[in-house]
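Second opinion, please. Pick holes in both lines of this record:
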Amino acid sequence: METHKDLRVWQQSIELVTAIYLLTKTFPKEELFGLVSQMRRAAVSVPSNIAEGYARGSEKEKLHFLRISSGSMSEIETQSLLSLNLGYISQEQHADLSEKITAVWKQLNALISAIKKRLNLDEQLPF
């Protein structure tokens, strides 16, 4: 039986969380309860919601929690750009993080599409 741990998207989202935690260690102390906290919470939300969706069992519940993960990915993308604009990360760090974000997002969207297809849902996501 497949669990969330078997999913490549879950595994890569764990890697993304780790990267964000390491990256935000260098942020200014005044951002500890601001951008650092927001980025870390959004990052942790991605694999956590994937896991919760798979623990629930039904395809509709999986889809619901995968969509929450997708929303968190939007937050991470936004926060990454803000971090670059504020000078907290370099262009190279931003590019590396963006690559990780894109990889997770593509897999997440593919999984969402596959579940929607199994459920015969025609609704299209805006990304």
In short: Residues 24 and 56 are 32 Å apart (CA to CA). Helices lie at 8-24, 35-56, 59-85, 91-118.
